[in-house]
Amino acid sequence: MLGERHLNLLNFIIEEFIETAKPVGSALAAKNRQFKVSPATIRSDMGDLEEAGLLAQLHTSGGRVPTDLAYRYYVDNLLVDFQYQLSNKCRNKIDRELSNAGDAREISHAAAKLISDISENVVISGISQEKDFFKTGISNLFDLPEFRSIDRLLNVTSFFDEFDDMFAKIERQFFSEPELSIFIGRENPMPNLRNESVMCATYELPGGLTGNLTLIGPTRMDYEKNIALIRYTTKSINKHI
């Protein structure tokens, strides 16, 4: 049975891996002041988390990385009592850019560009009724170690390219929740995105139109920041219409 120390260790490993993209070893975790136990105890706890399907070891002598199940646990717990706040500078930039946008199309484009630039992920934003989409951020993937794999990069770019033609299917499968939906790894209904995480949201636009927003990044994405970013941006849009 997993105890509080196991879950604190899991959170540490997830956040460390999100930050560095490097497997986390017991020696590194043992240096953290919150864990007042030996590296051997940390290794034992990591083994328990691995048995529970929450960690994976890519190499026999290497550290551990979070699994899709670990990220799901992490996100679900974030959403229970979400505390993360964007900086004042970031919020002011979002408000300023959106207030300068004119019609629904300009607002949709501005939202995509803002979220992609700040999150450093791929973003597709559009108007559901008009099937009009703006796509940005594909170049952000080239800076991420996950996308050194050509096959993985091609999977995301093919989704990016085919989004317009597949939107009816995407709308049914991704935009099932009224506000924010998060699909992690193998949860994704689209096979070519099952190594990534996807966040989807809808929002109101002028003229009774509905905007849709899709953010795509590695499962190692900064969930706290991206959730706060999408929530604040859609709230700001609703404030300005």
UniProtKB/TrEMBL annotation:
Domain Heat-inducible transcription repressor HrcA C-terminal span(s) in chain numbering: 88-227
Can you cite a GO biological process for this protein? negative regulation of DNA-templated transcription
Entry superkingdom: Bacteria
Q: This protein is called what?
A: Heat-inducible transcription repressor HrcA
Pfam family for this entry, one: HrcA
Q: Which HAMAP family match?
A: HrcA
Gene3D superfamilies recorded? 3.30.450.40, Winged helix-like DNA-binding domain superfamily/Winged helix DNA-binding domain
Family as reported in the entry's similarity comment: Belongs to the HrcA family.
Q: Could you list the residue ranges that cross the membrane?
A: none
**What terms describe the molecular function in GO for this protein?**
DNA binding
Give the protein's biological function: Negative regulator of class I heat shock genes (grpE-dnaK-dnaJ and groELS operons). Prevents heat-shock induction of these operons.
What gene name is given for the protein in this entry? hrcA
Question: Which keywords, in A-to-Z order, does the entry hold?
Answer: Repressor, Stress response, Transcription, Transcription regulation
Annotated InterPro entries: GAF-like_dom_sf, HrcA, HrcA_C, WH-like_DNA-bd_sf, WH_DNA-bd_sf
Keyword field contains Metal-binding: no
